[in-house]
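Subject: complex prediction, re-run

Hi both,

The earlier run crashed halfway through, so I resubmitted it with identical inputs.
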Amino acid sequence: MPLRLLRFALNGKHSEPRMFRNHDTLKSSYDAVIIGAGGHGLAAAYYLARDHGMTNVAVLEKGYIGGGNTGRNTTIIRSNYLTPEGVEFYDASIKLWEDLGQDFDLNLFYSKRGHFTLAHTDSAMRTMRWRAEVNKHMGVESEVVGTKDIQDACPQLDMTCAGHAPILGALYHAPGAIARHDAVAWGYGRGADQRGVEIHQRTEVLNIDVKGGRVQGLTTNRGYISTPKILCAVAGSTPRVTNMVGLRTPIIIHPLQAMVTEPIKPWLNTILVSGSLHVYVSQSDRGELVMGASLDPYEVQSTRSTLDFAEGLSAHMLDMFPFLSNVKINRQWAGMADMTPDFAPIMGKTPVEGFYLDAGWGTWGFKATPISGKTMSYTLANDRDHDLIKSFRLSRFAEYELTGEKGAASVGH
Amino acid sequence: MSKRLPQVSGEWIDRSQPIAFRFEGRDYSGFVGDTISSALMACGVKVMGRSFKYHRTRGVLSMANHDVNVMVQDGARLNMRGDVTPLEAGMDLRAVNTFGGLAKDKARILDYLSAFLPVGFYYKAFHSPKFLVHAWEKLFRALTGLGRVDFNAPRIKTPKQYDFTDVLVIGSGPSGLSAAISAANAGAKVVVVDEQAGVGGWLGYNRGGQHDSSAILQGLLKTIAAQPNIDVRLSTIASGYYADHWVPLVDAKRMTKMRARAVVVASGAYDQPAVFRNNDLPGIMMASAAQRLIYRYAVQPASEVVVLAANTEGYRTAVNLHNHGVKVVALVDLRPEGESTPYAGAVAALGIDILVGHCIYEATPTSNNDGVRAAVICPRNAEGVVDTTVQSVLACDGIFMSVGWAPAAPLLYQAGTRMRYATHVHQFVPDVLPAGVFAAGRVNGVYDLTQKLKDGERAGQAAAAHVGLGSGPSVSVAPEAVSPSHPYPFVDHPNGKNFVDFDEDLQLKDFYNAAQEGFDNIELMKRFTTVGMGPSQGKHSNMNAIRVLAKITQKPIQEVGTTTARPFFHPVPLSHLAGRSFYPERLTPLQSRHESAGAVFMQAGAWLRPEYYGAAGVTREGAIAAEVQAVRTGVALIDVGTLGKMEVFGPDAGEFLERIYVGRYSNMKVGATRYAVMVDEAGVVIDDGVVAKLGDNHFYFTTTTTGSATVYREMTRLNTQWGLNVGIVNVTGSFAGMNLAGPLSRKVLAALTSMDVSEAGFPYLAVREGDVAGVPARLMRVGFIGELGYEIHIPATYAAHVWDEIMKAGAGFNIRPFGVEAQRLLRLEKGHIIVSQDTDGLTSPFDAAMSWAVKLDKPFFVGQRSLKILNEKARKQVLVGFAVPGSYRGPALKESHLVIDGQRIIGRITSVAFSESLGHFIGLMFIEMAQSAVGSHCKIRVDGKLVEATVVKTPFYDPEGARQKLEESA
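This time it finished cleanly. Structure:
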């Protein structure tokens, strides 16, 4: 029993302070305003205050802290991407993740489980090898493994997948991890709040004031704020905000769904992904199997669930684990994924001076939370794109300089 | 002590059919019609489960699947809800999540440690020191979870069913049945579903009312029996609501996907617990649970009880209990004003003490915590302040609570209903319903029986009118005079253990503490405390959580709001959702020929294709080498029927092809073929094939195997915009295709056709229509694999015949079939690419060294704008051929091995093979422009070691293409 818990028993009164203060009013101006109190926005606020000394900062949130994709994703963290730029970026994120709980003094349940991306076809094997070769070159633990290694890690897996899609091998990524997603937003929020950042929930941005190509301020449902710098970190709502400043992006919103079973005694200790079967699954510390599949194949700006999704994913789950027939699905949900054509994010400065974009997070945003906060805070503070995000700049689309991550990001979030 | 009662009229059990079963290793018996919980209660069992976090003893709470206190496992069947799971003979049941059995659960120590484990305790510890994190996690994972999966359990395949109806009514209580009757009377086809095994809902177990509920139920059922338009389905759960009235109905055997034209939600309300210390002890349950036990299962739920009430239902329960031999020690009414209906007098007349303006301050457990021993009663004023100085202790073995309700509204929320908090009933009710969705009865805030029947009638009429039947609602419903729900049924206690969420073991103070830490809006509170996240999804806890939060924040409940209700209403087994699991698997008409020739198959999209043809004593590599050898020196046959096959007809056919492919087709002559590359709007190569011109307005062309469906869909989509005068037909399945290849192929073909197959009559890259083995055929001279060859396309039904005839005609030339692997090697020796293997998501035709195929000066084609821009840009990389010296003896080169220059990745192998004809490794690779000149040297990393390679010209084999145009040999 950790000593820390003793005080709860010895103290008659619950002694924990607020994680984030409430502010009755907005100030008339801030040095910077961050739109979106999800993991990314709060992380940027945290590092702005901690690393760059910018504390006169407001984070505006239409709903509540971590209520968007931060609280809807399946929490997989990995860095086994395909492009050297992607691998370097996500690897830097993992390095931050590993100490984040200690930095925050908050248990994020960061759990290194190992991550298998199963290959059922020879073309998938080629992609796995490509990723492994690039990863190893960049110093990231990644290996193409055979069927025996997969079975050793998960003896319960039907290696033929009901005879439909025999497993030929996998990409194994030892650093693959999961974490308690909500706590990540809370940890960043608390850290930012302690350093003087104001977090305003239920505060909706209605309009952004741009004059002479420069950000002047913005109008919210609680009044006008003047500010020279705005960071937009709103995932599925990105088009709504970029429209306010007249910025075109190639982002298209697709629903991404997920579901969980009832709690069952833990047996699945790794993270498994199958591109062919459109399944990724891990088991949480509550005992729930947390599952997802590929994007809905159409553009919809909504978080409604579909029955098709639950049916298709269940069938594929049983192909992999036939013994789960009696296990029940407790809940399904959806998020709005801001997809880009090359499956890489859009980060950094924009043609509108003072308007910074942290978007295009599609299905790969959660794992990037720490590094996006770190690099965007640098970019905002110095008005210069951080080196790690240069290949994610918005102008790459017009320049035909894409950062092709489709092979590593399309199913295996 | 609970026990079985003498026969109760309307009981669901069949006393002529006893059932033997086991629970926690002991023998018991019940009856057909019992649930697991009712049978155990009838046997006097009090403790049926342990709670998730503190492992406290638990018994029946709702008897309605609104909690999971009784969650049991029988072999492979796990997480079964004892309250509602029908008892079956031979069940061998154990409570889930115990360590060493229910009675002696070793984890019960956690109940004594609970002071150390306040809300969110796990966020505050166990993360440092870092080296212990893994050990803590192991401990958590050992303790967590409920049922245990049996890894040997077989897959269950349950068929699904599709259905449709005019009006779907959810709930067979009085309002649901009334709605069904009025909708059917208007002419609608009606399906009524109810998750219970018996019809009638509340009418079946609430007997104390001024109405004779049995008589009313019988009346309704009689009307329904006479109404052929009503179909009542019991033990059937409406599990979710999806767009356009799409409702999955789940029963024990299957999921039925119901499409309704209108939906009436008459799902009732969940009885809500009062929150006081030890309110979770076995023996403390909802009044509705006690009544369900009596009237459905003939079980006396306890012998001496205190009823805690804040509504008429509590008083009726007291009467019912008294009538079935239970001693009601007292009726404690939370309301200072007490009960205004004649029930107050009826209860008093039975000699039951009524303590108005009192509460239960705490329940006292028995010495071994297996039940309740007494209730401690204190006065409580209108402001909710409890006077703990005045206590009376009432001995009892049961406490039955009827203090309020929460609407069973998840389906309404999922349908997009806007709800509002109605203070006259202290519950959320529908405010704005979506089109075609209607609500009736308790879920709509209507509790009085007469009014419920009217509300159902109104909703049924409205639903019928929505589908165009009848003239709409003609009845009006009077609002409740007195709220059936108490606005704040909570009692603080310094020692806590006053539970709000029984699934998650959340106490009242956990909510105060969460709010203190800043989690003071309902969504954050849910996430921090996990209220409502357990298997019962907040049915007994969400409303109380909202009430507590409103109190803490001093906000109206309307402003506090609710969390999002998501599917499923009750959890649904994976097997029901998965169904029988169908896989589209495409076989060519030659499948049987491949099988008998010993083919080893591989998947190519939905198709199965022969990878190679095996034989006893021959390795995979040996078989492939022999197939290559046959093509290079003799004759061989491959099934290429999986290629996409398309036809376009019409005056604009040429123009259409000009637009979808990067090359030029308008100048083609009839009888010619041409290679074709397709790009997307970004200029990325997405498909390739061969276009054959069969007539002035008629083209036949192929696509890749995996691309055919997408290409066809994209073509039809584009022409919807373009409106060109063409017909586009996907004939992939109509035609079979095979490639007869090798220097001797002409001889074989000549024996089977009347066509002129001479080099002059049928030159390289020509297409001819003629006959093969008596079958009309289209033949193309193609060059993919670099030998003389004929791609023969014939109607699929004749494929086997033609294959057999070719094999017969070729027997003298040692003809043999060859598979995909040999073809891959053969095409690689010719330097031909495979789209998606030698290209990736960013490859332009320029990158793929196919600039020659791109005609940028055409008026328009898809991707032209991008290719024009790319054409002006400095190219980064290009696809080239490479060779490794024949002296190399190291590990095999593989696709995706990287080309390395110092610390930089400068390229990647896309295709590689050891060429027997050339005696060394050859392949294709992307490489940076600076290193791409023929003769440049580069280093490839193979298993960690750098291997020298040289950029070479392609084709590797027969660079002049002489073999494809092979003249008639002597």
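The domain at 25-72+182-250+342-409 of chain A is CATH 3.50.50.60 (FAD/NAD(P)-binding domain).

- K.
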